[in-house]
Amino acid sequence: MSLPYRSSPRRLGVALAAGLLAAIWTPGLAQASSDEHESYMDDHELAVEKLVRKRNIAIPYDYIATLMRLPNAFGEGAACVLCHSSPDPKHSYRGLDLTTCEGIKAGATEPPARPMFEPGDAEHSLLRRRLRNNRMPFGVPFDTPRDSENIQTIKSWIDNGAKDDDFFRQEVLPLFKDRNAFGGMQACTECHMSNQEPPSFHELNMGSHAGIMLGADSVARAQEGLPGVQIVIPGDAEASPLYQRLTENRMPAGIEPNESRDHPNIQILMQWINQGASCD
Ligand code: HEC
Ligand code: HEC
Q: Residue 114: phi, psi to the nearest 5?
């Protein structure tokens, strides 16, 4: 399985080709590549970014309804409504009804019942997480138990303050170095071993307490004067990306982890939420 570093070879290739074309066709290369983000996008992504997102085109609910009913809408996989079609948990996973606008806004009805987003705030939504974030370890099958003893150990360590104590050193840290701890084929530290990317994904070091507390992207963000992205929030496992990544499958269930996390339809769904999630 080939893995996407933030600038994968394919994207790098696209960016290089775009750079070359720009050098040939436009007088000012610097001007053409002023938006670094855009240079990583393919044509489909670029069209949505420039013609829909930047101009804040109003997204009609009709389009969202179509996305929920469409196979492969967010990358290869079954349509959302196949598994989430009723508020009754007997007929629909998590009692999540994605066939109506009201159902989408209500979220899961099975305990813990909760909305998937607050209208106006896509960034912090559960829905965004579920469409973008791969469950860890990368490539773990979606039906791997999510309440195993090892996952419970991580949860209680975080809920009890995430301290650098004997419990952490003897019970928790070894799990991150163990290939068999959470299912899948690789240990966390095989991909998250230092603050250097590459080789370490998201500059995340899961080999020590200090590394875990430093969080993700600490080097890149330090250049902007920001701290790393916290993956552990002491006292609150449910809110901690580390625990979420061990327990939340990316949707649609079974999607290949290599599918783009920036799929244009994810962007459009998020824009609909940011615009207030209107049912019109
Ligand atoms: C093949 C079945 C299947 C498909 C298709 C599917 N899901 Fe799921 N979904 C599940 C299962 C099973 C769960 C519960 C297990 C879990 O949380 O990982 C779930 C959980 C969720 C949750 C968590 C809700 C909560 O509050 O706990 C969200 C959100 C979600 N799905 C959204 C979607 C979206 C959006 C799509 C379409 C892109 C989708 N699902 C497609 C099976 C599916
Ligand atoms: C085969 C390599 C691989 C393995 C093994 C792996 N990861 Fe990851 N991890 C990734 C990649 C790639 C990303 C970024 C892409 C994504 O989020 O899906 C990532 C992202 C993360 C993030 C998000 C960081 C952020 O910026 O918010 C966390 C947390 C994480 N992994 C935890 C773990 C844990 C815990 C384990 C072990 C159970 C693990 N990873 C095992 C490759 C891996």
A: -165, 150
Q: What is the pLDDT of residue 94?
A: 98
As given in the structure block, the two tokens for residue 252 are: 């649609």
Handedness of CA 150, 233, 138, 5 (dihedral sign): negative
What's the pLDDT at 8?
A: 41
Look up residue 9 and give its two tokens. 């070879």
253 lines ligand 1 (CB under 6 A): yes
Instruction: List all residues 6 or more positions away from 105 whose beta carbon is below 8 Å from its beta carbon.
Output: 115, 119, 277, 279
Q: Which residues of the chain have pLDDT under 70?
A: 1-36
Q: Which atom of ligand 1 lies nearest, measured to the CA of 247?
A: 18
For ligand 1, atom 18, which residue shows the shortest CA distance? 249
Q: Which of 7, 2, 3, 4 is nearest to 220 (CA)?
A: 7
Q: Is the dihedral of CA 226, 11, 72, 145 positive or negative?
A: negative
72 lines ligand 1 (CB under 6 A): no
Residue of the nearest CA to atom 11 in ligand 1?
93
Contact 218, 228 (CB under 8 A): yes
Distances (CA, A) of 11 to 41, 94, 187, 251: 7, 36, 27, 23
Structure tokens at 28: 């000012």
- The predicted structure's pLDDT at residue 84: 98
Element counts in the chain: helices (H) and strands (E): 15, 0
pLDDT of residue 47: 93
Question: What does the pLDDT read at residue 41?
Answer: 85
Find the distance separating the first CA and the last CA of the chain, reported in whole Å: 42
